[in-house]
Design brief:
With about 200 residues, the protein is mostly beta strands. It has one domain: Beta Barrel (Porin). The chain is about 5% helix and about 55% strand. It has two helices and 20 strands. The protein has helices spanning about 10-15, 20-25; strands spanning about 30, 35, 40-45, 50-55, 55-60, 60-70, 70-75, 80-90, 90-95, 95, 100, 105-115, 120-130, 130-135, 140-145, 150-160, 165-170, 170-175, 190-195, 200-205. Strands 3-6-8-12-13-16-17-19 form an eight-stranded antiparallel beta barrel. Strands 11-14-15-18 form a four-stranded antiparallel sheet, with no helix packed on it. The protein has a three-stranded antiparallel sheet with strand order 7-2-20, with no helix packed on it. It is elongated and about 50 Å long. The termini are far apart.
Length: about 200
């Protein structure tokens, strides 16, 4: 989180328009079961993930994930995988280091094939809650879904790049004490592209 800058309303609208597993799903083809290759345990890394709220952008240098995917064919899309650890590093806000904590395990869900790009599997990651804080307690905020329920972030898995891309969902600030830059009820958008290792492929049966 290298910068923490005030946003005008136009920038907030632009951030909201960037959402995406949900925007793609309107033009997607549903699949009953899925094949995962190779599946099993995986790790993943994203460079420069961001969290955007109407008044601010929060930046990190990197995020690392580890978990597992089902293997072979005939797998249901719901719970096709899990993320058992999700960490963030190099996070700062207005030059101040920040800690980011995210709940685990999280569920990876495959929902449909994007009819506009057959390499993309539209889906979601569910069970998300998160919090941020600086060492001096000048800015703290918690994030979940509406009403404090676990949130779902949305995006797609790209078989051509073997990346899990997150760019939408229903995250919002459920509590905030952050100099008015993050306010309770603010919608939040998480953006990240995770490279999987070993490289994974998810296709409709």
């Amino acid at each position: 989180m290298r910068k923490f800058t005030r946003r005008v309303a136009v920038a907030a609208v632009a951030a909201t328009a960037a959402l995406g597993f949900s925007a793609a799903s309107a033009a997607a083809t549903s699949a009953a079961t899925w094949t995962v290759t190779p599946g099993g345990s995986f790790s993943a890394n994203a460079a420069n993930p961001t969290l955007s709220v109407p008044n601010a952008d929060l930046f990190c240098d990197a995020s690392d994930a580890s978990g597992s995917l089902k293997t072979g064919s005939g797998n249901a899309g719901a719970g096709i995988g899990s993320i058992d650890s999700l960490t963030f590093s190099g996070c700062s806000l207005a030059g101040i280091s920040f800690d980011v904590t995210v709940s685990s395990p999280l569920s990876i869900n495959a929902e449909s094939v994007d009819s506009a790009d057959p390499d993309r599997v539209v889906g979601s990651i569910s069970g998300v809650t998160a919090s941020i804080s600086d060492p001096d307690g000048l800015c703290t905020a918690s994030f979940a879904g509406p009403g404090g329920a676990d949130a779902t972030v949305t995006g797609y898995f790209d078989n051509s790049t073997h990346q899990l891309v997150i760019n939408g969902g229903n995250l919002e600030a459920t509590s905030a004490n952050c100099l008015g830059l993050i306010n309770t009820g603010d919608s939040a958008t998480f953006n990240a592209a995770y490279d999987t290792d070993p490289a994974q492929t998810i296709t409709a049966d």
